[in-house]
Amino acid sequence: MLVIFCALSLLSTWPIEALTVSLTPSAPSPGLVGSMVTFTAASDAPASQRVRYRFRYRRIGRDFEMIRDYGPQSAIAWTAAEHEGGYELEAAAKNLDTGDSAGASIIYQMESRVNGASGVVNATGNPQVFLFSAPACAPGSRMRVDFRGPDGASNSTQFKRCGGGLSMNFYLAGMKAQTAYNAHSFLDTGSAFVTGSDVAFLTGPAPALAYTNTVQTPAPAGATNPVLLTSNGVATDLAGNLLWSMPLVNYLTRPEPGGYFWGILEDDKQPLSAQAILKFDLVGMTVLETNAERVNEQLRTMGKRQISGFHHEARTLPDGRILALADVEQVEQDKQGPGPVDVIGDMIIVFDKNLNVLWTWDTFDWLDITRPAVLGETCAASGSGCPPFYLASSANDWTHGNAVQQTADGQLLYSSRHQDWLIKIDYENGNGDGHVIWRLGEDGDFTCNSADPWPWFSHQHDANFESSNPNRLLVFDDGNTRFARTGIGMSRGQALDIDEDSRIVNFVLNAGLGVFSVAVGSAQLLRDGSYHFDAGYVMEPDNSIAAYSIQVNADGAITYQMKQNTLIYRSFRMTSLYAPN
């Protein structure tokens, strides 16, 4: 009897009804390569309970890859856009209220679009993006697709490796609307080049934009980096013609090689689970996604502060890890004024390819909390350009980080707008302890060689070391502090040579851009040695907002300028939508 009683007691501790999950595709298997399918998960948990869903996929015989980590969305749109074959889609569910979890998966077959020896072109859900499918090519070879319009200008995808007897598939993007194009495969066998037959196709009508582009200074003949991509998810040529658009996120942070993009989902009226970073492709398919609620689960187990959301920066690091900038808040007593004050700082988070948190850096641990924002910026309950915050109805916007770059020596360069500093952090390729190596800017650790009465940048954006010269720093100098103290209101594009050993800065470029951008901005070296700057938030005389994409030569003279009557957080001059620079 004792044995039976113990067994019954053990059984009584089990949940009466465990969580169950189903996964259903919007179209039955098989599908065609590139055909989007929506996979919907459903659980039997009551609607009042908080269930979170994770989606992963794998090609049969390989490991699972993350698409979206645990979040409230129960469906995901997905397709295999590289090759045909059998794929397993998995949905895992987790009930945050009961702790129950469950999973389900299905096998979905994707079939080739190629029926013969020639390539084929098919439309996608974006009228200016097409899918080119070519027959299989021999292992050891590589293939790309070249495509051109009636003006004869040629564009090319990146090369992909052949193998496995599988068709080759490429998204074609960066084309004008309602225009005839021709495309063909270009095969590099290692010993010969083989050009495929032309395939003709017509692009669809472009979606209407909410703003206009006005070229004020035309681009010089033969200008490099002929594509202008904005953080609004819009790409044009230098004449302002729309080439691509994908307004999936609040703002796009960085383009990635091969036609991928990182962006931020940010809404201060929504809960933590709605604050997210997102990587997507040319047709808008989610490639990777996580949210603040899920990240906080990991930070809690690591003994770290919780984040309130993501802002300003998400990008892939050189080793394939992922970096994002988040905000943290903490109520401080008598540190930035009398009594308790909610203070918003920053956390840099580094993830592995499956969005597991690997490394963090927190301003509350490493910066002086008694040094408030230089111009005393605060955040209201809604808007005002602040990241989400929850501990009070208003807060001090202490650091307002806006860019992070991994440097050539494996450290991190962090831009703090409201400290007027660029800060180098000990990252050591993920092994650093996070201490501050130096601070660059007024009252920092460097001396500046310049005859300018106010040489230092302030409220700067998009600081980055050139890949071709790891000692040369580019920065967009908004100039807010300089304007507040001197009345000189003009933003500048700067290039600085940094001598880290002697802590001396020499100016290579300090170009007045003719406008004052009160916030946002970007800086970039172009392939011909000139520079691109985004003055993204200019208050016009009629109180409207405009952005200016400005190119200057090595002497600081403006050689190209386009005005957009909207706010643009960042912009990028690209060689194509497949190649950031």
Distance between the termini: 77 Å
Q: What is the count of helical runs? A: 4
- Name the average pLDDT: 94
Class by SSE composition: mainly beta
Query: Which overall shape is indicated by the principal axes computed on the Cα atoms?
Result: globular
Domains (count): 3
DSSP, total strands: 45
Relative strand content: over 45%
Roughly how much helix do the residues carry, as a percent range? under 10%
Major sheet description: 6 strands, antiparallel
Residue windows where pLDDT falls under 50 for at least 5 positions: 1-16
Radius of gyration: 26 Å
Summarize the structure.
The N terminus is likely disordered. The chain folds into 3 domains: 95 residues, Immunoglobulin-like (Sandwich), CATH 2.60.40.10; 83 residues, Sandwich (Immunoglobulin-like), CATH 2.60.40; 271 residues, no CATH class.
Structural write-up:
- This protein has 581 residues and is mainly beta.
- It folds into 3 domains: 17-111, Immunoglobulins (Immunoglobulin-like, Sandwich), CATH 2.60.40.10; 120-202, Sandwich (Immunoglobulin-like); 257-465 and 513-574, no CATH class.
- 5% of the residues lie in helices and 46% in strands.
- The chain contains 4 helices and 45 strands.
- Strands 11, 12, 13, 15, 16 and 17 form a 6-stranded antiparallel β-sheet that branches. Strands 26, 27, 28, 29, 30 and 31 form a 6-stranded mixed β-sheet that branches.
